[in-house]
Specification:
Helix content is 7%, strand content 38%. By secondary structure, the chain is mainly beta.
Length: 148
Amino acid sequence: MSEEVEAYKAQVHTGGCACGAVRYRVEGNMRPVVACHCSQCRKAFTNYGAFSAAQRGDLNIENAAGVTWFESSPGVRRGFCSRCGGALFWDRAGNGFVSVSAGSLDQPSGLRQVRHIFMDDKADFYEIGDGLEKFPQGQGGDQWPGGN
């Protein structure tokens, strides 16, 4: 197991939407945060989406009925709070994990961002100077470290 994954092993993370109608709990590993600059994340978050991820079996969504799922592209859905519109989840069919909006995590999360993806689609009104890995497309954002 890489150091990157080891740092997030066996922690409990909680989070939820802005209004509190939807809460979730992750008991297990979480992937480091990946910043996605695709046009869909830009439109959902007004800038870019920052996501961690949890194995499906480790994620428990309280009031799951309060989550509205939107199929943003074939085989991919995004979960939002039905009440406040808070973006919470990104889910590709067939993955063994669900991506969790890093901004919806209760603090302190103990997570850190490790890369930027979909840089070819980044908006023109901001620059990135944090020195993290940058990928023109989605490399590293839809994978769980060590395999799916």
